[in-house]
Amino acid sequence: MRVLVVGGSGFVSGWLCKTALARGYEVWAITRGARKMPEGVHGLIADRNDEEQLRSVLEKANVTFDAVLDCICFNAGQAEIDLNVFSAVSKHLIVISTDSVYHPSHKTVPQDENGTGYMEDGGYGALKREMELAFVQDAGKRMAYTIFRPGHIFGAGSYLGCFPEQSRQPDLLQQIREGKPMRLVGGGEYLIHPIYAEDLVKVMLDSIGNQKTYNQIFCIGGPDVIRNRDYYEVIATILGVEIQIETIEEDGYLEKYPQYSGHLCHRAYTLEKLAKTGIALPDTRLYEGLRKHIEALTAEGKS
């Protein structure tokens, strides 16, 4: 199996490269060359926004792939570049989107892939939805696509913490150890559906060549749906300390911080559609995944 990872030195893309290599795959990756590639990866240097540069680099490499996995496709323009360029070297494109494409006022619990309302405010979720639509409208004419919509992804290579107030904070573990309160809107009662990074990339790799995933969009999350506050309580339990929660009143919050609208709602998803593909569903329980994540941060001196 030969795969091409777009953005191979990032958080999820780093997990993809590492996991694919462990499976014995031949792994290539496109980056801007700013960070060192994982050992064993064939690196290609190009700006993913420069269509001609991408095409030139791939033509020089003269390699075809069983799949291209794009971890950083962000908008419709980048989706068009993917379809124009990667269709010459592969028949299958696997892309990470986000659960933030859903408009909070139209969501159900659990939410499936057939949402009736999507973000249109020009923000992150809206741009990701425009990206999805570029693939949907192509309808697999240039290459088959598979799109995944994760919510909160955690694991080594990133910091801990969820939106809106405590997201990806380098000093989060120190704050919890010192008894500083976690500031949670509404007391952290909204549901979240975290997924361990290794689980996400395993599903992506298992999608390669599975025609049931072609030209489809899938919700994806781990085995545990929890309250936002539970996430921090589990971290505190692993650290062996008491958690302190400070409730931020919801009244007026969104008016002041409209960019957090996609996070001040329940974010729980059904994986029934994914299960029908025959792919093994994510199975790393929250406690175990967070324990591994904290161990990795500690080993890196980031705890």
Kindly state the percentage of residues in helix.
25-40%
Q: What form results from the Cα inertia axes?
A: globular
Strand content: 15-25%
Counting H and I runs of at least 4 residues, what is the number of helices? Answer: 10
Strand adjacency order, main sheet:
3-2-1-4-5-6-11
Task: Tell me the total number of β-strands.
Answer: 13
Write the element-wise H/E pattern from the N-terminal end onward. Answer: EHEEHEHEHEEHEEEHEEHEHHH
Mean pLDDT: 95
Most strands sheet = 7 strands, parallel
Distance between the termini: 37 Å
Please summarize what this structure is.
By secondary structure, the protein is α/β, with parallel strands linked by helices.
Characterise the protein shown here.
The chain has helices at 11-22, 51-61, 76-86, 124-138, 172-177, 197-206, 228-239, 253-256, 272-275, 286-299, and strands spanning 2-6, 26-31, 42-45, 67-70, 92-96, 144-149, 153-154, 182-185, 191-192, 195-196, 216-219, 226-227, 245-248. By secondary structure, it is an alpha/beta fold. Helix 1 links the parallel strand 1 and strand 2 (26-31). The two termini are 37 Å apart. The mean pLDDT is 95.
